[in-house]
């Protein structure tokens, strides 16, 4: 048996055993016996059982990425590619795809282990999610998707939603096949990221252009400072001609002072709504704020929840899951139905799929914020505001009123 073949046999054996029993209940002796090799041979290729698990997932992800790229053959345009990737990801969660089920089980094991995020196997996961990021960038450059999006955040939200769909199928058993949710998933995703209706009024277009210039100015002023920033740089960042800026603003100073003017107007409007309205959109914003605050204020519990509970399949058959499910479902369903009844939210929203977007977004952000530790408090605050806006946009029957 050649060296490479022997290593592959060990990986196949580990894949079967760990996906079935979990990392804790699996042992090297069992894997070696199943592979037909001595225990010591495994340690020749892998440091330990954990390293073996991460390498198994890395190999699986390479194969999945290759298959996904094959599915892209003949697919034109970023919207179609996005749809194909989401469909592919949903389809491989379905129970009839036994090999995909194994991969999902391995993902549960790996993502629940903080050491995974520092292993080369994690880089394979990044390459897979990088395909999604590339599609989103293509969509922005070709004017299909909004150009004010934080694409890394959108990627996290989409994969968070898809992860929860997998949980529904493989752990909580709420659905038998996630591919049936494809249209509901695409509806939410496109509602968040698609360009505005091309038939929108000229007044709306003017407002959008002003917003683009203001966002670009904020970005350039923040990076270079007011004195060093130029109107040409701002125009380039906004995607407009330099002369266009002067159609809306007298000069650079006028543009600078219009930034707080616009921001404080938004703050005032937001506070007025909070104080006077029981609008479903406002209730939902409060719910998001309360949810993030409750979890983020106890980071020890959050870490345990993310690594030892949320990605533990046994959790989904426990009494604790009933409490967790009720916490989300009762409040969120009531709120969504109220919004639909009043016409504030779109009537065709699948409540369960939106719940998956909501929970999945929170889970992916929390992992990146606290397990990977690559996000500053200021960035967290900014991303929280963006997430709230995107989730509301996914629901809204008329995004222009947000």
Question: Summed up, what is this model?
Answer:
By secondary structure, this protein is mostly helical.
What this model shows, in words?
- There is one protein chain.
- This protein has three domains: 143 residues, Tetracycline Repressor, domain 2 (Orthogonal Bundle), CATH 1.10.357; 66 residues, Arc Repressor Mutant, subunit A, CATH 1.10.10.60; 128 residues, Orthogonal Bundle (Tetracycline Repressor, domain 2), CATH 1.10.357.
- About 1% of the residues have low confidence.
- Helix 8 crosses helix 17 and helix 11 crosses helix 12.
- 73% of the residues lie in helices and 0% in strands.
- By secondary structure, it is mainly alpha-helical.
- The protein starts with a helix and ends in a 7-residue tail after the last helix.
- It is built from 18 helices and no strands.
- GO terms for molecular function: DNA binding.
- This is Transcriptional regulator, TetR family.
- Pfam families: TetR_C_4, TetR_N.
- Keywords: DNA-binding.
Tell me, rounded to a whole number, the average pLDDT: 86
Q: Can you count the beta strands?
A: 0
Can you summarize the main beta sheet?
none
- CATH class bucket of the largest domain: Mainly Alpha
Class from secondary-structure proportions: mainly alpha
Strand content: under 5%
Indicate the percent of residues in helices: over 70%
CATH superfamily of the largest domain: Tetracycline Repressor, domain 2
Sequence of secondary-structure elements? HHHHHHHHHHHHHHHHHH
């Amino acid at each position: 048996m050649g060296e490479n073949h022997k290593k592959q046999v060990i990986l196949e054996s580990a894949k079967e055993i760990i996906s079935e029993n979990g990392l804790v209940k699996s042992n090297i002796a069992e894997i070696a016996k199943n592979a037909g090799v001595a225990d010591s041979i495994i340690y020749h290729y892998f440091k330990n059982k954990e390293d073996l698990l991460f390498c198994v997932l890395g190999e699986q992800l390479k194969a999945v990425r290759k298959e996904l790229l094959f599915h892209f053959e003949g697919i034109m345009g970023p919207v179609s590619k996005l749809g194909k990737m989401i469909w592919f990801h949903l389809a491989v969660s379905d129970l009839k795809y036994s090999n995909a089920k194994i991969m999902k089980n391995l993902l549960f094991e790996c993502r629940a282990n903080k050491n995974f995020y520092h292993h080369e196997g994690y880089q394979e996961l990044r390459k897979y999610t990088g395909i999604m990021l590339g599609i989103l960038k293509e969509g922005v450059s070709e004017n299909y998707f909004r150009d004010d999006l934080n694409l890394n955040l959108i990627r996290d939200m989409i994969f968070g939603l898809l992860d929860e769909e997998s949980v529904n199928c493989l752990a909580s058993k709420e659905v038998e096949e996630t591919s049936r949710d494809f249209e509901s998933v695409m509806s939410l995703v496109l509602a968040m990221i698609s360009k505005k209706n091309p038939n929108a009024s000229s007044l709306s277009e003017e407002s959008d252009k002003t917003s683009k210039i203001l966002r670009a100015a904020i970005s350039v002023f923040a990076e270079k400072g007011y004195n060093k920033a130029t109107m040409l740089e701002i125009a380039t960042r906004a995607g407009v001609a330099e002369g266009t800026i002067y159609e809306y603003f007298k000069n650079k100073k006028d543009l600078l002072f219009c930034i707080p003017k616009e921001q404080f107007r938004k703050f005032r409007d937001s506070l007025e709504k909070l104080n006077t309205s029981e609008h479903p959109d406002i209730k939902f914003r409060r719910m998001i704020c309360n949810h993030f605050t409750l979890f983020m204020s106890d980071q020890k519990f959050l870490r345990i929840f993310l690594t030892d509970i949320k990605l533990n399949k046994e959790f989904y058959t426990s009494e604790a899951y009933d409490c967790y499910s009720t916490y989300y479902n009762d409040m969120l369903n009531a709120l969504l139905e109220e919004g639909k009844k009043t016409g504030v939210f779109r009537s065709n929203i699948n409540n369960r799929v939106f719940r998956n977007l909501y929970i999945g977004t929170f889970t992916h952000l929390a992992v990146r914020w606290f397990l990977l530790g690559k996000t500053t408090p200021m960035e967290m605050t900014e991303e929280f505001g963006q997430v709230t806006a995107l989730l509301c946009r996914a629901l809204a029957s008329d995004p222009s009123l947000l």
